[in-house]
Amino acid sequence: xxxxxxxxxxxxxxxxxxxxxxxxxxxxxxxxxxxxxxxxxxxxxxxxxxxxxxxxxxxxxxxxxxxxxxxxxxxxxxxxxxxxxxxxxxxxxxxxxxxxxxxxxxxxxxxxxxxxxxxxxxxxxxxxxxxxxxxxxxxxxxxxxxxxxxxxxxxxxxxxxxxxxxxxxxxxxxxxxxxxxxxxxxxxxxxxxxxxxxxxxxxxxxxxxxxxxxxxxxxxxxxxxxxxxxxxxxxxxxxxxxxxxxxxxxxxxxxxxxxxxxxxxxxxxxxxxxxxxxxxxxxxxxxxxxxxxxxxxxxxxxxxxxxxxxxxxxxxxxxxxxxxxxxxxxxxxxxxxxxxxxxxxxxxxxxxxxxxxxxxxxxxxxxx
Length: 368
Ligand SMILES: *[C@@H]1O[C@H](CO)[C@@H](O)[C@H](O)[C@H]1NC(C)=O
Ligand SMILES: *[C@@H]1O[C@H](CO)[C@@H](O)[C@H](O)[C@H]1NC(C)=O
Ligand SMILES: *[C@@H]1O[C@H](CO)[C@@H](O)[C@H](O)[C@H]1NC(C)=O
Ligand SMILES: *[C@@H]1O[C@H](CO)[C@@H](O)[C@H](O)[C@H]1NC(C)=O
Ligand SMILES: *[C@@H]1O[C@H](CO)[C@@H](O)[C@H](O)[C@H]1NC(C)=O
Prior knowledge:
With 368 residues, the protein is an alpha/beta fold. The protein has 15 helices and ten strands. The longest helix has 19 residues, at 273-291. Bound molecules: 2-acetamido-2-deoxy-beta-D-glucopyranose (5 copies). Residues 120-122 line the site of one 2-acetamido-2-deoxy-beta-D-glucopyranose.
């Protein structure tokens, strides 16, 4: 695998362009990467790569934003009722603060990675209301002033657009969405409040469900500022550029902004040059849809380094969903993202500037 990815990398054009720098030029607020505190990453045996990993994460031309992949989730922040623990979330928040990265904060009310006590109690409606208000309040107060946006409610929808039967929905119906957002707006009026979900990247029943949620809140006079498209795509069947532009428009029409919040494109293993090309197109189209949509403020990839991705553990037989291979060479998809960003500004794409010797190609100096 190592020699395969290296051979591929040397066949690629070298681009001096970097993601956040080009994203800013294209009019976005940021291009970012989620990251995690060391104990939570799939890092076993990879300690030797930390220094190189950390340098890329902290390169402000590459990334201008980060999100804690795990540390602000309920499981970590309120593991027992009324007992709050911000250790994990604070690690990534410190990285953001020290390196001038915009932080998207994630996620307040979600059925998954939820503390077990929330699901194992038979709540009355009143008791669960108190639990939601207390959780949203304490967590948001702790991170006040340190977040650009909060994912207030995460993954409330089934694929057909109906509401997921979470403990929150079963006990309170759609009232829980109103309660979470209205509480969040009270605690921190300055932070952007998002509804975040996956498979919201093409028009269909689920995207219509997200539209319904935005309308529900707006019609009730409750603040919602954005729809987060997680965008966990599959290289062999990603949404098209046009589908993504159309769906972003359907959210923007309601007066909210949009962000790609967890972009990755998983590939069936073993990799081959065809599937890597599919992946490149998928990244190019996701990034391109954001760049071409005035409502889309930025793009976050869900970590950037393949070995730290959630994908292999959750989808056996798939992987390499991110932009850096294990040996820190870049995926072809990295250049797909750059091309989509440069497409907006009419800048150079990563094309050969002159024909030179094969050695020059190998040393990657042929291109700019
Ligand atoms: C808080 O979380 C950290 C990191 O997960 C853990 O090491 C620590 O023991 C926790 N603190 C308490 C008081 O449980
Ligand atoms: C919750 O209620 C159901 C039946 O209404 C019961 O079977 C279950 O044991 C209860 N769970 C708890 C944790 O009390
Ligand atoms: C959308 O939902 C309707 C029911 O509301 C169902 O009949 C239809 O098959 C769904 N479409 C897709 C593409 O899942
Ligand atoms: C490359 O991988 C894809 C799966 O990602 C597979 O469908 C395709 O047949 C493979 N092509 C070759 C030439 O092995
Ligand atoms: C590149 O820009 C052109 C013109 O704005 C547009 O038609 C095309 O879809 C863009 N391509 C991508 C991948 O964004």
